[in-house]
Amino acid sequence: MINSFLVEINNRDLENHDNLSLIEMKEESNILSLTFKLQSDLDEEDKFQIWKIECKDFIQRRICDDLFSSFDIFEEHVLLWEYNQPKAGLYFKGTTENISGLIGELYLKHLSITQDWIPLTEYINDMVDIQELIKAGYGLLANAPMEIIEEFSEVLNKFNIKPSIVSNGIMRYWDGGSWVNGHTQYCVLIFGRCFVIAKEFKEERIQ
After folding, report:
1. Same domain, yes or no: 164 and 195
2. Could you tell me the pTM of the whole model?
3. More confident residue, 106 or 174
4. 80 inside domain
5. What is the mean pLDDT of the chain?
6. 85-117 b/e with 16+ CB inside 10 Å = b?
7. Which of 53, 45, 52 is nearest to 206 (CA)?
8. Same structural domain for residues 93 and 139?
9. pLDDT of 174
10. 49 with 187: CB under 8 angstroms?
11. Same structural domain, 100 and 166
């Protein structure tokens, strides 16, 4: 794990006086290597630390910035539900005159659950326009981890639309090339609004 780097980060003030930046990223086979620079505004310019984090068997990543005000690793997180929860399909029967209200409620519920880490379009049926689908009065609304599907089901009930959850209860995860039955323990490394999901993280202080 990356205990030493986390201890160093926890002793810093990334919101104010300390800077954490990504200065290099390399991908080789199934290993993603991230090199970070940690420096304080209060230190002299030549006083900084360089840390290399190896993300072994990484399966997903989003690198969108290069300067971060937070850094942590999690074994439980909404980003991991895709890999540690059964998937389910949410079907429905019935409709509502307030289609915009229903879509808005689904969006707000999704935002509350995922904290904006995952777009709603990741789970909603994109084979047909959602307004036309609801207007039709039946069909597949979403495929998602069970916890999200159960929350969506409550929203449908609120609009007097009958939900139907279909799941075989089998755990499946994406191995980078295909869906595989089973359960694999992943962790997620989150820095700012960036993240890497991998099986193992190793640290090395270079400077």
Report:
1. no
2. 0.85
3. 106
4. no
5. 90
6. bbbbebbbeebbeebeebbebbeebbeebbeeb
7. 52
8. yes
9. 64
10. no
11. yes
Helix, strand, coil percentages for the chain (3-state, nearest 5): 25, 40, 35
CB 19 within 8 A of CB 153: no
37, 69, 44: which is closest to 194 by C-alpha? Answer: 69
Tracing tokens 């800077």 back to the chain, one arrives at 19
pLDDT score recorded for residue 82 = 86
Phi-psi region of 64 (alpha: psi -120 to 50; beta: other; left: phi over 0): alpha
Residue-wise burial string across 170-199, b where 16 or more C-beta atoms lie within 10 A, e elsewhere: eebbeeeeeeeeeeeebbbbbbbebbbbbe
pLDDT of residue 114: 95
Exposed / middle / buried, residue 71 (Cβ in 10 Å: 0-12, 13-18, 19+): buried
* Token pair in block for residue 205: 């202080």
- Quickly count: other Cβ atoms within 10 Å of residue 133's Cβ: 19
Cβ of 119: how many Cβ atoms within 10 Å? 11
pLDDT tens per residue across span 159-179: 999 999 998 766 766 666 777
**Cα dihedral value 102, 104, 106, 112, nearest 10:** -150
Determine how many CB atoms are found less than 10 A away from the CB of residue 43: 11
Domain, as residue range, for 47: 3-73+189-205
